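User: Before I run my own analysis I want an independent prediction to cross-check against. Here's the chain; please return only the structure tokens and, at the end, one sentence I can use as a sanity check.
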Amino acid sequence: MNVIVLLGPPGAGKGTVADALTKRGVHHISTGDMLRQEIREGTKLGLRSKDKLNHGLFADDTDVITMVTDYLMAQKLDDLVLFDGFPRTLVQAEKLAELTQTTHIHLTTVLRLKCPDQVLLGRLSGRRTCVSCGAVYHDLFSPPDVHGRCDHDGGALAQRVDDEPATVKRRLDVYNRLTRPLVDYYRETKMLHEIDASRSSEEVRSDVLLKVKEFLP
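Assistant: Structure tokens:
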């Protein structure tokens, strides 16, 4: 199984990149979505993670590693997986490296989306999420047809706690502090490809597809 790692702070456009790769047969796995599902289901792992996420912090490395390992072990040998949000710390990266040495998992490339914090703050503070289906909108970039209502099911749109400006600032501070060693780690492996995510989504998407085309199904 081949794995592509997608790094980038909240609001850098990882979802847009993931959509482009999913359309080309890549399995997109967001550890943030996985954790939120655990929270909705009220699992022990979810309950442990809920308070941390609501305060802009990362879930515990052990919990994230457990989720990811369980997922990977259940996939087919010929799958191509895109990880969005994993690894986020050096501990998680080292655990992934261990898995590649002892299993059929092969890390092919690491993509890093770079974007100034001020741009990210503007992007995230305008984001709204449907409370029913989870569809995401933005006040400026992708507003719904009817203000405050989801286009898909009419559900109410709300700002997630972790998208409020003060929380966003904390999330970015934590991200920059904890992932700096991670970026250095992957730069030393020669697998890191850095992409300017302050550009249009079309430019970013085109750049990403060029970087990974040899691995696509």
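Sanity check: The two ends are 12 Å apart (CA to CA).
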